[in-house]
Amino acid sequence: MDNTATQTDAHKDTREARFDTTAGVVSKMWPLGISIDDDKLVKYIKHLEDEGKKHYDSDEINLTKRRKLNEKYLFGRQLRGKKLKKWQSSYIDNIIGEAEGMLKSIAVSKMPDIIAKVDPEDEDKQKVGKLLTQAFDDEIKARETKKKLGIMFKHQPTYFIAAMKWRWDVHRNKLGDIAYDVIPPEQVLPDHTATSGNPDEMMYIIHYVTKTGKEWSMLFPNKEADIIEYIRTLAVVEGSPVPDDEILLSQKLTIPEVWFDWFDKAEDFDAEKNPKFNFMSGVAWRLGDKLLGKTRNPNWDYEGHDVATLDGRAISPEEMQQIILSGIEPDNFEIRKVFNNYFDFPKKPFIFMTYEQFMKGVMDETSRIEQTVKLQQSYDDVEQTVDYSIKHNKGKNVFGKQAGLKKKDISKLDMENPNQDLIVGGDPNKTHKFIQPNMPPAEMFIHIRDRRDRIFAKHGTHGAVRGEVTSRVATNTQISREGDFTKADDIVDETILHVATEMARAKLHMMKLRYTPEHWKKLVGNAAEFLEFRLDNDVIDDGVEVEVYASTVDKLKAERNAKELAQLQLIDPLTYYEDVGLPDPKKRTERLLDFNDPSGELSLYRKRHVEGKSIEQIAQEVVPGVPAIPEQGGTVPVNPGQLTTQATVPSPQDTSQVPGGIIGSARNFAGNAVNAIRGMFGGG
């Protein structure tokens, strides 16, 4: 027993040193050294990087050019850098940007609900699930998270992928906590050989991180000289003065951070008898042709700790104390090794958002923006032609020679000036004529309307969703809206809900890995010790599964249906408040019922919800002498005129001395008191 306690204490010392929340990940890498040769690793990383860039810049993929085109049309920058002639129109109606804005507002209008699904037969795990669900709910529904998911939702159709990276931030929430960073897609180079956007299927992911040379030297103090020399080779032009080291270290430096999987032969490898390989997940930073640093995946517990178990269940400190005092080791007592990991294996800390996957690569094969760029181009061409025609084809004034005007006189005329009058010779009807302008034909307006409708249709944002009345027939509008919501629901399910789920899973993993008692106390208050024990000492399997159970688009449908049912008076207040997503629906319902008191009086409402009095306090005011119900058993004085004996309020085990008129629960007493109050006010 004593040996077990010593081992546990040693584990705590090691774990606290490694996961010290006051220091960054890099400064605590000493337990995670890897034995891969630096030159060998640099060549491996450089090869992966070169092959990845070659693949994405190939004629078949042409990723950079396609991304720039999508970005240009998303933001309506078609005319930027383009020199227009005098007769060309600069008119732009950015339908793609409008459709994407509407779709994004639908996608993030209601954040998803995340629930920690646990074993329903285990009461302790049910409690764990409720505590974790609340933690996930606070994180996912934070305004900051909504903004990040919205940015990713806009990145995905523009760049064919959106990227998020999770990490431990020692400064977040004072104690340190998991942080989520949205990464510009051009700063990420995922495995070009993978066939999906799942990071677990990728052999490598490169993140191009930009920091000042000083920041890099603080992360890798033993490499400061190499960093200075590298910046000097990039920033200093031959023949120019060489800046001092501090100026060089102030320059921005982008370095590839490579998260990779590594397979190598085991020490006892034998091709025939023991073909064994070792797997390792690691991260390295490359500085030119040198390695700045390398380590095993820091987001993983490799050592584990010993846990005392009985019948396969972790023993609580109280149970352990009883066993020690008894001096008898019970049957099925065992010491097991437990690791503080939620994931099954070390994961690369990235979450990718994709939609148009076809099992051919990491990037989406296409996107809704790319599919509508040609339509927008056609729309722009015709719209600009119409705009020019209307602006410049203003008609012509023709004068006959009999009018007595010369060319010089006509050139001085301003026919658009309403204050200018003319005197012409002869009959004005014969000496002057106005030729009407040639207006664009109806076919051009039909073309414009068709292109506009097709763009909105491809994005799933018909007029009904945008709030436009497109039909007088309500069923047609409803069908159009439901069709768009069905498409939006599918998009949100594979994008927003996927990322939200992975965020919650990453948070649970980092909770198990890095949370201290102070973290748990701040998160769940008095339940901190219980939750920490259950998550840190789960022997075989947490039984905790993060599951998304509701769609954001489903919430929009529920809200709309609730409002329609309310107009028909076919919904109760509690369900209405729940469906429209108002906070604290039960309290709102209670207030509404008190406000709509059948007596027509608002005294009960004012006393309860304005003055903050309890039911018991109101009852004592209305019916003096009615005994209050204390929290603990004891004696309460009663009005002598009402009872001839002193009433003893019982403990939970003794109800023998309670007068018959008071027997019942506090809930029954409160109900009787309310009925008495309402009766005095004239209510039924």
Q: Could you list some keywords that capture this structure?
A:
disordered N terminus; single chain; 684 residues; alpha+beta; flat
Give a written overview of the molecule.
This protein has 684 residues and is α+β, with helices and mostly antiparallel strands. It has a domain of 84 residues. Strand 7 and strand 8 form a beta hairpin.
Which SSEs are present, and which pair or pack?
Elements: H1 2-18, H2 38-56, H3 63-74, H4 95-107, E1 114-117, H5 123-140, H6 143-159, E2 162-169, E3 177-183, E4 188-190, E5 204-212, H7 213-219, H8 224-235, H9 245-249, E6 252-265, E7 277-287, E8 290-296, E9 305-310, E10 313-314, H10 317-326, E11 333-338, E12 350-353, H11 368-392, E13 396-399, H12 407-411, H13 428-431, E14 432-435, H14 442-459, H15 474-494, H16 496-514, H17 517-524, H18 528-536, E15 545-548, H19 552-567, H20 573-580, H21 585-595, H22 603-610, H23 615-622, E16 634-635, E17 648-649, H24 666-680
Antiparallel strand pairs: 1-15, 2-3, 2-12, 4-5, 5-6, 6-7, 7-8, 9-10, 9-11, 13-14, 16-17
Helix content: 40-55%
* Oligomer status: single chain
**Spatial gap, N to C terminus:** 69 Å
Tally the beta strands. 17
